[in-house]
Amino acid sequence: MVLRLEAARRRTDTRDWVVQRRERTRHLIELGGLVQKAGLVDLTDDDRATIYGALLETVGKARNKANGDTLALWRRRGRRAFAIEK
Fold first, then answer.
1. Angstrom distance (rounded) from CA 77 to CA 73
2. Are residues 28 and 52 in the same domain?
């Protein structure tokens, strides 16, 4: 009986891990889609080092400036772009 309970617990743990992995994978795919939509892939000719550098530069600039204003501006621009695409 104890072995069955342990086996059932392991299956549940594995299922939880699989669900979390799938959620993370979906999230990463959505983020990649945003990079594509923003035009970074075409702009950089799909050079991943350049894309990563651009993202790092963006984060660095946002941290150096008034963070709230920059993030609010990006949010407005993003929402506007999503609204136009619908």
1. 6
2. no
